[in-house]
Amino acid sequence: MTDARQDDAIDSTAAPGPVPLLEPREGIPPVVADAASLEEVVARFAAGTGPVAIDAERASGYRYGQRAYLVQLRREGAGSTLIDPVACPDLTELGLVLADAEWVLHAASQDLPCLAELGMRPTSLFDTELAGRLAGFPRVGLGAMVESVLGYTLEKGHSAVDWSTRPLPEPWLRYAALDVEVLVQLRDALELELDSQGKLDWARQEFAAIASAPPPAPRVDPWRRTSGVHKLRRRRQLAAVKELWEARDRIARERDVSPGRVLPDAAIIAAASAMPANVQALQALPGFGPRANRRLLEQWIAAVEAARLLPETALPAQGAPHDGPPPPRSWADKDPLAAARLSAARAAVTTLAESLNLPQENLVTPELVRRVAWAPPKPLSAATVATALRSLGARPWQTELVAPVIADAFATARVPTA
Question: Do you know which SUPFAM superfamilies this protein is assigned to (predicted)?
């Protein structure tokens, strides 16, 4: 599509159906991969006006970690740009000239960590995915939102490719540039929709919380997230999962590949369940076939052996450590009244969320409901529940809405009689 035809498509409001966006308005921008080109981009975006659309592409499933392998930006008066963060790993200057601009991202929490690694952090933002959730849209992926709100279709076939590939193929670059092509336009339409529903202040509070959130703390016992670990019942088997996970993580980091490409989770669970005594027994398990690298097989069996030799006192606990209430499934035995409070509060919050046409988890997270249900404030009132929720991180708009219904649910909760 020519530039003129593309402009006509974007400006048209009378199209009979979704209009495919096939080319960026100014064409595919060259990939910025040197200091001089980056300096020019910094100057151009500093001279631009209004919000800046930002996106980042990672190589999840291919490379270790969640670093960015392409950064896309677009701003009025600056056009679009594509930056190679492998060649330009320090984008601090670009972040500084955009410090006063509102960043427009889709699913901001996914991209902000890898942008921060490059020196870019927003002071204010607009998350179009979260805005869609608050506005009650049933599908909030970028392609679905652009189609339902703006009437354009985006080609999403390259979302899961290996973005660490160099050079990046032209179709991938076109896809990446189009991801920021209408993001500010989507933001403006969603702002109007949220305002019409009386939810704009809710969204602004959510966006401010995301922008000001500290970096996520390292996960405690990340090996416990191995898929299928819940099937294991013995602590020594859990120790084997831990040893195998840590060995895999070390190898994946050294090779800069996704851990799942080194050893699938299913293979870790199979080895931990069987606790094989030697390489031959290990090779008989799924994921450790005859074509497996001999050196790696020796490392896996060494990890299993290390778990086998651990003293009982050093074995990991059956459950993950936590500082909150116990799992809800145990509440009926531990504290039947707390279980009744939780059941009543869940029902009340679900009903309220449905009446407001937004997901229950965006109205208030289930974790916050569990915590106040397990240890409710005293004396019990909407005000004390609101204070408790705010201390746990709830935003003012959330506490204003849910505190009264949670307080009422707690007050009327009764332990079922046999």
Answer: HRDC-like, Ribonuclease H-like
pTM: 0.90
Same domain, 234 and 111: no
Side-chain half-sphere of 74: how many Cα atoms within 13 Å? 22
252: closest CA among 113, 114, 69, 63? 63
Q: What is the pLDDT of residues 173-204, one digit of tens each?
A: 999 999 999 999 999 999 999 999 999 999 99
In 125-162, which positions are buried (b, 16+ CB within 10 angstroms) versus exposed (e)? Answer: bbbbbbbbbbbebeebbbbbbbbebbbbbbeeebeebe
Alpha carbons within 13 angstroms on the beta-carbon side of residue 285 total 25
Contact 114, 58 (CB under 8 A): yes
The verdict on 203 and 232 lying in the same domain is no
Structural domain harbouring 360: 328-412
Q: Is 142 domain-assigned?
A: yes
Structural domain total, the chain: 3
Least confident of 98-107, 156-165, 350-359: 156-165
- Which has the closest alpha carbon to 308: 271, 281, 283, 266? 271
Rounded Cα distance, 232 and 151, in Å: 49
- Rounded distance between C-alpha atoms, residue 129 and residue 141, angstroms: 7
